[in-house]
Amino acid sequence: MKRRNFLLGTSAITLGSIAVGCRQKTAFRIELLKGSVPVQMVSKFRQGLLDRPVIDFVPQPQLKDLYGLLQQNSATTDLVMLGDFWLSAAIQQKLLQPLDASVWQHWNQLPQQWQALVTRNSQGQLDPQGQVWAAPYRWGMTVIAYRVDQFKSLGWTPKDWGDLWREDIRHRFSVLDHPRETIGLILKKLGSSYNIKNLERVLSLEEELRQLHRNVKLYDSNTYLKPLITGDTWLAVGWSTDFPEKIRRQHNLAVVVPASGTSLWTDLWVRPASTKPVSEVPLTQQWIDFCWQPEIATQMSLLTGTTSPIVPQMNPNELPEALRNNPLLFPKAEILDQSEFLLPLPESTLEQYRSLWTKIRTETVGS
C-alpha cells in the first residue's frame, strides 16, 4: 500500500536539517517518512533535554522504504516510522522488539482502538494479552474527494459510499486499486465490516462489486489526484493526506468522510530488533511520550494534515478552531466509531479477496 505525502513548506524536515553537532556521536537516530514530523516539534523536544544530545532525523520518501530499512537489519537506528499495514509482517519476521507502555505518561490517553491495534502476539495477530509492539504517532482516513463545480450542476453532493452507485456519475470517478479498500467500502455500504473473515457470508457482495465496477472510470492508488484536478474525473476515493487544504482551495475540491464509516490507517514508531534494548536508550521512550503531549499533538495535527491519536479523546473546546472544525482532522465521533483499521486477515480470507477482485476486474469496465 502506498500513501503519498505533500510537503508543507518549511514545516517539514529535510535531510540533515536536524543532524547537528556532526563531529559528536549521534545519541538518537530516527528514520521517518519525509514531511511527517514538523521541525517545530523536533526543536521543542531538543530544548527539553538537559544535555542537548545529537539527534539525527533521517527522512525517507515512502513508507515501503522504511519497511525495507527494517529488513536490512540496521543496528544504528533507534526508531523507525512504519505504516500499520506492515506491522504484522514485521513482527512475524522478528524485525521488531516490543516496547514498554508502562513508562509512557500519555499511553492511557490513546483511544482503546489504537491501543488494541499495536498489542499483538508473536505472530502479529491482535491479542489483548500480547505485547505492545508499536506506538501510534498519527492517523488518517480513506475519504471521498469531489469537484465542487461539477456536483453543483448535479444538484447534490456525496455523503456516503452508496453515492458511488448513482447513475449520474457513471464513468466519472476513480477508486483505489486495492482490494481491501474497494471491496471494504462495499462491505461498509452493506452494513458489514472491513475485517469480516468470510466474504461468502455477504451474499450480495459480488453483484455490488460488479455494479460498482461498471460505474468506475479508473482504478488508481497513486495518481488519482491529477485526473480529478484536470476534470477527467469528478470524484476520487483516496487517502486524506492527499487532499491538503491548499490543494482543495486551489482546485475547487471538497472532501467528505463517508457517513457509514471508513478505513483508518496509522503511522507507528517501532523499535528495530537489531538495536540495543529499549531500556538502554531512554530517548526512545521520551520521544514517543513527547509526541502525545496535548500541545505537541495539536501542533503536529495542524502542521502535517494528519491527526494525533490522542486528539479524539481531547475536549473539543480545548482544541484550536482550525482543528476541531476540520472533519478530516477531527471527524464526528459517530463516524469515527464506525470506522476501522484494516486488520490482519487469515490467508483463506485474503484468497477470497484476490479471487473476487480478479474475477470482477477482468470484466470490461462499462460493460
TrEMBL record:
UniProt keyword terms in alphabetical order: Periplasm, Signal, Transport
Keyword Glycosyltransferase: no
Cellular compartments annotated: Periplasm
Residue ranges that the Swiss-Prot or TrEMBL entry lists as coiled coil: none
Main location: periplasm
Keyword Signal: yes
Name of the protein in question: Extracellular solute-binding protein
Annotated source species: Limnoraphis robusta CCNP1315
